[in-house]
């Protein structure tokens, strides 16, 4: 199956995560590619030591970054992992069997459910109960759209893999808040075209409703303190989006 599958990982300063990500899949793929956004830590060094090929490209948005990298790949199929994701042993074996039995082509791509961790604890609720992503796909039938929360558009049917992907997004609270700020900056550009006058509703009500949605409707309270923090951060992310939009419209430096 190796000659059919390439591992692709988008990176920027992922030295604490990249080794485990690569090692979780390296022996079932033909090649490992990084699409790196000019890392300044040891990400590239670690990946190179493990035999990965590094494609360096200045970041503009998530979709263009990934779409460009996909064009550099020779294999028919792509396994895309974020640096904070890893194949579990069960998922790895499922992918091996899929290609070994030549059943991969019954679909053009595959959804994978994620087992999420935050503050090193499993998150079972908080809106992440059915968290799934397309991570295995045919290169020529798939492309990413949207600049911020990019989605993979697939020409053809998408199947489901049974086993879950390990996903641990936490690498320090300050890092997480900075990541939310980065997303909010990108979102402001998109929302500028579709959002009218900013009001009390955008700065107070929408963030509050987002918190209530994740904490009560999505049962974040069942995840304990991490669920409370996650629900608050979801509300805060909404607040930040409109702060950044207000700054954009008033030409205030970030």
From TrEMBL:
Q: Where is the Glycosyltransferase 2-like domain?
A: 7-132
Q: List the keywords (alphabetical).
A: Transferase
Q: Does the keyword Transferase apply?
A: yes
Family annotation (Gene3D superfamilies): Spore Coat Polysaccharide Biosynthesis Protein SpsA, Chain A (3.90.550.10)
One annotated GO molecular function: transferase activity
- The source's domain of life comes to Bacteria
The record's PANTHER family line, in alphabetical order, gives: GLYCOSYLTRANSFERASE, POLY-BETA-1,6-N-ACETYL-D-GLUCOSAMINE SYNTHASE
Similarity comment text for this entry = Belongs to the glycosyltransferase 2 family. WaaE/KdtX subfamily.
Q: What is this protein called?
A: Glycosyltransferase
Organism of provenance? Myroides albus
């Amino acid at each position: 199956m190796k000659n059919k599958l390439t591992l692709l990982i988008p990176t920027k300063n992922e030295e604490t995560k990249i080794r485990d990500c690569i090692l979780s899949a390296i022996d079932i793929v033909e090649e490992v590619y990084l699409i790196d956004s000019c890392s300044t830590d040891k990400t590239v060094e670690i990946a190179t030591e493990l035999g990965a090929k590094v494609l360096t490209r200045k970041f503009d948005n998530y979709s263009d970054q990934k779409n460009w990298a996909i064009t550099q790949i020779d294999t028919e199929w792509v396994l895309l992992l974020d640096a904070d994701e890893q194949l579990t042993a069960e998922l790895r074996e499922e992918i091996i069997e899929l290609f070994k039995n030549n059943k991969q082509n019954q679909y053009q791509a595959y959804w994978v459910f994620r087992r999420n961790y935050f503050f090193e604890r499993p998150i079972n609720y908080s809106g992440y109960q059915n968290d799934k992503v397309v991570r295995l796909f045919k290169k020529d039938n798939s492309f990413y759209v949207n600049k911020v929360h990019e989605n993979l558009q697939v020409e053809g049917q998408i199947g489901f893999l049974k086993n879950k992907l390990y996903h641990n997004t936490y690498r320090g609270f300050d890092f997480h808040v900075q990541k939310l700020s980065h997303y909010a900056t990108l979102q402001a550009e998109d929302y500028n075209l579709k959002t009218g006058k900013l009001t009390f509703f955008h700065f107070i009500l929408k963030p509050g409703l987002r918190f209530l949605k994740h904490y009560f409707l999505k049962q974040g309270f069942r995840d304990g303190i991490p669920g409370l923090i996650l629900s608050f951060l979801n509300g805060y992310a909404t607040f930040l989006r409109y702060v950044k939009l207000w700054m954009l419209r008033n030409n205030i430096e970030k």
